[in-house]
Amino acid sequence: MHGARNVGGGENSIFYIIRSLDRRKYRPIVIYSKENRITKEIEKEGIETIRIPIDQTIISLYRDQVSFNPLRMIVYGKHLLNSTIIMRKIIKSRKIKILHPHDNLSKIICGLTAKSLGIKVVSHSRDLLNKNIIEQFLLYFQLVFMDIIIAVSKANRDIFKINNSVPEKVKIIYNGINSKQFIENNNKFKLDLDSKFNSSFNIGIIGVFDKVKGHKYLFEAIKILVQKGHTNIKCLVIGDGRIKSELSSWVNQNLLNDNIIFLGFRRDIASCLKMVKILVIPSIQESFPRVMLEAMIMGIPVVGSEVGGIPEAVINGKTGYIVPSQDAMGISSAIERFIKDPELIVQMGNAGRKLCQTRFDLETNLIKTQAMYNKLMRI
């Protein structure tokens, strides 16, 4: 993993897999370029880490920032080649048998390296790649260079369809969560939140500040609810990212500072979730958000967009509500149902917890992932 992005659900999910691997069979080694919270936690677990230089030119790029200028493409290629040469040396010295790249840049580096050395490579697909050039390149690159692709939802699996058929190498393994571990780990980092939130109807949104996360549609829904007289509502916004100033400006301009509260990046997610009655995931694009499981395991119903893998866990009318994507009015209507009928929060929260425990358990996720490793090595 290059480690240069904000730590999110994908990073946490891969961390739990790494730390839980059967050490009698596997010796995990984590290779990274930029140190972050996850790499530090991995080191605390006694897992070997190796830091390598990857040029900032490619490590800082988002998919929508890639330039197809011929000169820029030559520069990208040069830095990718340098990274591949470094990876080859590490793989040979450590006698690595399987590569498991996390992010898209790492998939390219590891895919090229693995093919040049004849070793196996497995990756998680956590992005719903669209039809633009760079995303189609990333999709077909995985199909060509990955030996196994682990899709985190049915929706994620289906992006790999060719002539209405999904290649055999693409397997579904849902993100998993260990309820006890999640709550205990987060409570270690508990920070006090303002007591003024105790008497309000709190709604949560947790995620990186990016347009695809759909924050503005929830904010518009809050505005609708406040205008209808639900002035006691507070939206606790947890996260950080590249459109932070844009979101803050919108809240200021619409005079909603008392109703939309930015709490910044938090490590005590379980503690934050304890303060909200419902979680909203208004994403425009999403594979299978981990925070959805974190809310459900704590008995919190979810209002989610009808995109990606969200409807595979948020069962409409049972564990929460599914609303159309980019629909502020739909979000406000779903929230208002909970305001008017608080018993729904208890009923749907309990149903979500049971579903999470039976279908999205971490141990099941881990067993299936290790089975993929075993299949590659024919253990």
Helices and strands, with pairings:
Layout: H1 9-20, E1 29-32, H2 37-44, E2 48-51, H3 56-59, H4 70-94, E3 98-99, H5 104-117, E4 120-125, H6 133-145, E5 148-151, H7 154-158, E6 170-172, H8 179-187, E7 201-206, H9 215-227, E8 233-238, H10 244-253, E9 260-264, H11 269-273, E10 278-281, H12 290-297, E11 302-305, E12 320-323, H13 328-340, H14 343-359, H15 362-377
Parallel strand pairs: 1-2, 3-4, 4-5, 5-6, 7-8, 7-10, 8-9, 10-11, 11-12
Helix pairs in contact: 4-5, 5-6, 9-13, 12-14
Describe this structure in words.
With 379 residues, this protein is an alpha/beta fold. It has two domains: 9-175 and 362-377, Glycogen Phosphorylase B (Rossmann fold); 180-359, 3-Layer(aba) Sandwich (Rossmann fold). The chain has helices at residues 9-20, 37-44, 56-59, 70-94, 104-117, 133-145, 154-158, 179-187, 215-227, 244-253, 269-273, 290-297, 328-340, 343-359, 362-377, and strands at 29-32, 48-51, 98-99, 120-125, 148-151, 170-172, 201-206, 233-238, 260-264, 278-281, 302-305, 320-323. Strand 8 (233-238), helix 10 (244-253) and strand 9 (260-264) form a beta-alpha-beta unit. Helix 5 (104-117) runs parallel beside helix 6 (133-145). The mean pLDDT is 89.
What does the largest sheet look like?
A: 6 strands, parallel
**What's the CATH H-level superfamily name of the largest domain?**
Glycogen Phosphorylase B
Low-confidence segments? none
Distance between the termini: 26 Å
- Helix amount, in percent? 40-55%
Global mean pLDDT: 89
Strand content: 5-15%
What name does CATH use for the topology of the largest domain? Rossmann fold
In the sheet with the most strands, the strands line up as 9-8-7-10-11-12
Number of DSSP E strands: 12
Briefly, what CATH class of the largest domain?
Alpha Beta
Q: Would you identify the CATH architecture of the largest domain?
A: 3-Layer(aba) Sandwich
3D shape: globular
Rg over alpha carbons: 21 Å
The H-and-E topology, N to C, reads as: HEHEHHEHEHEHEHEHEHEHEHEEHHH
- Derived from helix and strand composition plus strand pairing, the structural class reads alpha/beta
Given the structure, what is the number of helices? 15
The number of distinct structural domains comes to 2
